[in-house]
Amino acid sequence: MNLKKLKIIDLFCGCGGFSAGVINAALKNEFKPEISLALDFDSEALNVYNANFKRYTRKLLNLDIINLFPEKPNAPYTANEKKIKKELNKIDILVAGPPCQGHSDLNNKTRRDDPRNQLYLKVIRAIEVIKPKIIIIENVASVIHDKSQVVQESINFLKKLEYRVETVEIKANEYGIAQKRKRHLLLAVKFNMPHSIEKELSMRKKNSIVLKDIINDIVDECQTKQGIFYTPSLMNKDNKKRVNFLFDNELYNLPNKYRPNCHMNNKHSYVSMYGRMKWTEPAQTITSGFGSMGQGRFVHPLRKRVITPHEAARIQGFSDDFIFTCAKKRTYLHKMIGNAVPPPIAETVTSIVLKYL
């Protein structure tokens, strides 16, 4: 069977969560996926990306997006942008997960007014140059509160380019992911659709799954398998005491008096920090800090340890076929898993729009 080719661009591709979902959707809808360009500044994440998608990938660039698209939307094209426009023609779908830390509610220093927030507009510049048929941009839900209003500016500009634009906030646990993760999606297409993306998504909601549904079979894997993907981060003696206290007293939130002084002596609303996960509930949002109990509710619900990268990847919706074992450093591994777009979300949204391509 000669399948119709689906030409894909993935900006800020990381280890490939977005691409994994798009490729799954393509194959299930009888398209032949081709990654015309995958771009990221993180060479460690690109090593993992290449290990998983080299058979689909035509061009993989370890580069800052600013080097490709230095101008703002509506500026005259640079010579390099003209070259890119010629090389990357007839692109079907462009996906992007620009860095979200500047928008995150966990970022107390530069929240809403972070230079990284402008990278969202670099995606819009890339769209202006390449003009793909389908666009999906994923970010944290709080991106809409950015002081420079990057989302609204993007919507206005895409409409001028004659895209049909829609935004929606989704909850990951409603789409087969055992995680209380809220994400903002901007979707734009160059064709008409009979229903809104939001309506299509509402018809695909699933019953919420919980931690025990997805990590029950790997609870003690770290005792039999070696390597950073299968083993948890080590805890210092103070955190070991905190974990023991949680289990000895059957608690899930650590009382203030047992927290570090810098945390204990300040008013805070982050009760999940130093907390223990619940076996019969979805996890909180998985971040790159899942290896530290001081950065979220990342203590395993049944074992006196933090979750492993394998467990975090499962919670993010990665299949066990996805190759992470080529990652050599724990810090980089945690970062790429925590920053990834959950593949099931990418697959669900892509499947909706591919029906009308």
Q: In words, what does this structure look like?
A:
It is a single chain. 32% of the residues lie in helices and 15% in strands. The radius of gyration is 21 Å and the shape is globular. A 7-stranded mixed sheet has the order 3-2-1-4-5-8-6, with helices on both faces. The chain has 13 helices and 9 strands. The protein has 357 residues and is an alpha/beta fold. The protein folds into 2 domains: 216 residues, Rossmann fold, CATH 3.40.50; 127 residues, DNA Methylase, Chain A, domain 2, CATH 3.90.120.10. Helix 1 packs parallel to helix 13 and helix 5 packs parallel to helix 6.
How would you summarize what this structure contains?
With 357 residues, this protein is α/β, with parallel strands linked by helices. It has helices at residues 17-28, 43-53, 65-68, 79-87, 119-130, 150-160, 197-202, 211-215, 237-248, 261-264, 309-315, 330-339, 343-354; strands at 4-11, 31-40, 60-62, 93-96, 134-140, 164-171, 179-180, 182-189, 283-284.
Protein traits:
357 residues; alpha/beta; Rossmann fold; DNA Methylase, Chain A, domain 2; 2 domains; 7-stranded mixed beta sheet; two-stranded parallel sheet; 13 helices
Topology:
Layout lengths: L3 E8 L5 H12 L2 E10 L2 H11 L6 E3 L2 H4 L10 H9 L5 E4 L22 H12 L3 E7 L9 H11 L3 E8 L7 E2 L1 E8 L7 H6 L8 H5 L21 H12 L12 H4 L18 E2 L24 H7 L14 H10 L3 H12 L3
Helix pairs in contact: 1-13, 5-6
CATH homology-level superfamily of the largest domain: Vaccinia Virus protein VP39
Spatial sequence of strands, sheet with the most strands:
3-2-1-4-5-8-6
The CATH architecture term of the largest domain is: 3-Layer(aba) Sandwich
Number of separate domains: 2
The arrangement of helices and strands along the chain is EHEHEHHEHEHEEEHHHHEHHH
For the largest beta-sheet, the strand count, sense and barrel status come to: 7 strands, mixed
Shape: globular
Point out poorly predicted stretches.
Answer: 102-113
In total, how many beta strands?
9
* Number of H- or I-type helical stretches: 13
> How far is the N terminus from the C terminus?
19 Å
By CATH reckoning, the class of the largest domain would read Alpha Beta
CATH fold type of the largest domain: Rossmann fold
Structural class: alpha/beta
